[in-house]
Amino acid sequence: MDITEVVKRTGIPAHTLRFYEKKGLIASVSPRGARRQFASAVVEQLAVIALGQAGGLSLDEIHAMLSPSGQAVVDRDVLLAKADEIDATVKQLQAMSRGLRHAAACPAPSHAECPNFRRLLKVAAAGVFKRGKRSTAGPSAVRPSSHQ
User: Fold this and answer.
1) Which fold has domain 3-64?
2) Eight-class DSSP state of 137
3) What are the residues whose beta carbons fall under 8 Å from the beta carbon of 21, sequence distance 6 or more?
């Protein structure tokens, strides 16, 4: 399949296909110097790459899960670790969302007088909201109470 046909079938730009080839994620079957030709299996390989990227995997992590023939060799431990990372990020974002919603609707005369807002400031100052850090108190540390 010509590179132009791959672009038409997948919507992936030719420069990205060349980049993936350079990184070893896909391989052309054409002789060096000739117009790139790919086996029809490249469409499935590109789908695996897209799925991995959508799941938050790096190209290096995806590359490690592709055999030399281009077949997916799934590393379940990597997938579980990525799922745990996503779950932790979701919990952190949900806690932040609750805090923002509370701050927006808080009946206190000023946010400085709101005990929940003060607790949020304390948690944020401790580095909970910095990427890569986890609170020992967990997301409930920033869950607003209903003092309204």
Assistant:
1) Multidrug-efflux Transporter Regulator; Chain: A; Domain 2 (1.10.1660)
2) S
3) 27, 28, 36
Ordered by start, the domain boundaries in the chain are 3-64, 86-142
Residue with tokens 């919990």: 91
Selection from 48, 37, 33 nearest residue 6 by Cα:
37
Tokens linked to 28: 């052309």
The residues pairing with 118 across neighbouring beta strands, listed in sequence order, are: none
Find out whether 76 and 65 touch, Cβ atoms under 8 Å: no
Query: Burial code of 75-94, b = ≥16 C-beta within 10 A, e = fewer?
Result: eeeeeeebeeeeeeeeebee
Both tokens of 53, joined, read 């990227």
pTM metric for this prediction: 0.66
pLDDT digits (tens, 9 = 90+) for 63-77: 998 887 778 888 899
